[in-house]
Amino acid sequence: MAENLKLSIAEVRKTVVTSLTAAFGFVIALMWNTVVQSGFATAGIPLGTTAKVGEWAGWAYFVVSALVITVVMVIFIVVLSRAAVKDPKNS
Predict the structure, then answer these.
(1) Average pLDDT of the residues in 5-32
(2) Do 17 and 83 meet the contact criterion of CB atoms below 8 Å apart?
(3) DSSP track, 47-58
(4) Against a cut of 0.85, is the pTM above it?
(5) Residues 6 or more apart from 20 whose CB is under 8 A from it?
(6) pLDDT by residue (tens digit) across 57-70?
(7) What's the CA gap between 13 and 16, in Å, rounded?
(8) CB within 8 A of 50, min separation 6: which ones?
(9) To 10 degrees, the CA torsion angle through 75, 79, 84, 89?
């Protein structure tokens, strides 16, 4: 009985980590989508973004924001991945 409980805790942990990793990846994708769209708008290729033509400072803000969010989310993913492989016996 205890063996099944430990297995299920490990499965739940892996499932939660997988779900959070997918969510973090989605956040990263949305940020880079904004960067690409605002880059097009800044270059004069309108795609329905809020950035205006020629506002390179606004585009640079999106690039820096996307880089920071990407780094933070990757760190979260690594930490969560390490937690998922942690042995339930040591918990």
Answers:
(1) 87
(2) yes
(3) -S-SPPTT-HHH
(4) no
(5) 76, 77, 80
(6) 777 888 888 899 99
(7) 5
(8) 38, 41
(9) 170
